[in-house]
Amino acid sequence: MEWSLLASLDEDERRRVLAAARRRSYGRGEVLVNDGDPSDSLHLVASGRLAVRVSTSDGENATINLLGPGDYFGELSLLEGSPPVRSATIVALEPAETLSLSAAEFRELRRRHPAANQLLLSLMARRVEELSARLLEAMYDGLDRRVHRRLAELAELYDDGRPGAVVVPLTQEHLAELVGGTRPSVNQVLQRLAADGIVELGRGRVTVLDRDRLADLSG
């Protein structure tokens, strides 16, 4: 697949990075990494969808993000110095594959090919942009807008390339976790979308019927 995060490297450099990575396969429900584990490798998501989960102050687990092909996690492990620890648990929602690049392999790659430093800069810059956007969203956007935007992102994540509706196989509880709202309040937003014919609600899923209108609402 094409890796947009490797776009800053030339073709030879991209090949070197991918050649140094190890392909790993995971089954549905399998934990890739645990919160608090030593972070010693970067993972590029090659296929499948992954849930990013954290522990809340009351001891519950909450899903705060979903990753799909082209996404990545563990970039802090590539920094020099003491190895950091994983800040979240990553779980495969379906059979998935990643390309894993260890910190040691990356250090050797940087030693032999200094241009690989650009990859680390690209990873960090992209993460800062993502976190900044989420912070602004949490501070200034209302719940309706957050639900619309997350559903639009999820429709893109679960798009299989076929025309028509896109099924997002997540419960309303999971969607509430993703937007930082309560299930009853998120349900109200979804009911309004359903009444307008933009989504269809089902058990354990939300089917996006009109992505264009949803995109307009998400801003």
TrEMBL record:
Keywords: DNA-binding, Transcription, Transcription regulation. It comes from the Bacteria. InterPro entries: cNMP-bd_CS (IPR018488), cNMP-bd_dom (IPR000595), cNMP-bd_dom_sf (IPR018490), Env_Response_Regulators (IPR050397), HTH_CRP (IPR012318), RmlC-like_jellyroll (IPR014710), WH-like_DNA-bd_sf (IPR036388), WH_DNA-bd_sf (IPR036390). The keyword Transcription regulation applies. Pfam families: cNMP_binding, HTH_Crp_2. Signal peptide: none annotated. Residues 145-212 form the HTH crp-type domain. CDD domains: CAP_ED (cd00038). Residues 5-127 form the Cyclic nucleotide-binding domain. This is Crp/Fnr family transcriptional regulator.
